[in-house]
């Protein structure tokens, strides 16, 4: 048995098979890495549990006892890993007719392409479903919502009213992020990190972010987004987004958008005794989602 890739397997190439990513066309970089914090897992699922902090301190009157409080456990978010696998067959007749190298290269490349496209599509679905009812987070609401619950009341990570991408809209999102509070209503140091857009907004996002002066105005004023480096991670494009005018800002929130990689291998090969066919397969085992929705802010567009 020969294996290419990660996992506890010998790293060996099937005869005639070389590194196989791409199927004749170029591939985009691994865009899913811009959408999530990457982590590994050693079990079938991972679980994050919200723990409350403390609120503001009350006044202590002279001679009176200190007020004591405690932490409480909030909602839990479970990441249950899902396995994806696909394979192909090289028939015995192809083998003995010396077609092995030709068909194996072609099919192994196609298999690698399928694996990458699957991962990108699964990852982008979390963003594509940012406001789809039924795809809720640990707090019981969708990813982008104006009514995320907390001990201090509801809070929002969606631009309201919704607006198409513009300099003003991006500034408003940054202001909203910088005003974030924790579960008890205490102010936290949440800051924008990167702007993520579909291909349809790529050029407009660059015009807005990289103009020296204010974009699309006659004002002789600085583009503050650029001059202050308000979004230090820059612009990321995702080719797998389905909403052509939705845009998102990732923040520095810990335990926000997360992807757990449980296990993966690129290519494993064996032979079938009954048919003498050669078989190969690839395998990927991971989960994606979010724990704290403060990890992402955005707008669906107007």
Search tags:
single chain, 11 strands, four-stranded mixed sheet, alpha+beta, 302 residues, disordered N terminus
Summarize the structure.
With 302 residues, the protein is an alpha+beta fold.
Describe the structure.
The model is unreliable at 1-23 (pLDDT under 50). The protein is flat. The strands form 3 sheets. Strands 1, 2, 5, 9 and 10 form a 5-stranded mixed β-sheet that branches. It has helices spanning 92-96, 100-128, 167-178, 202-210, 224-227; strands at 2-4, 37-40, 45-51, 73-80, 82-90, 192-198, 235-238, 247-251, 257-271, 278-290, 296-299. The chain contains 5 helices and 11 strands; from the N terminus they run E-E-E-E-E-H-H-H-E-H-H-E-E-E-E-E. It is α+β, with helices and mostly antiparallel strands. A hairpin with a 6-residue loop joins strand 9 (257-271) and strand 10.
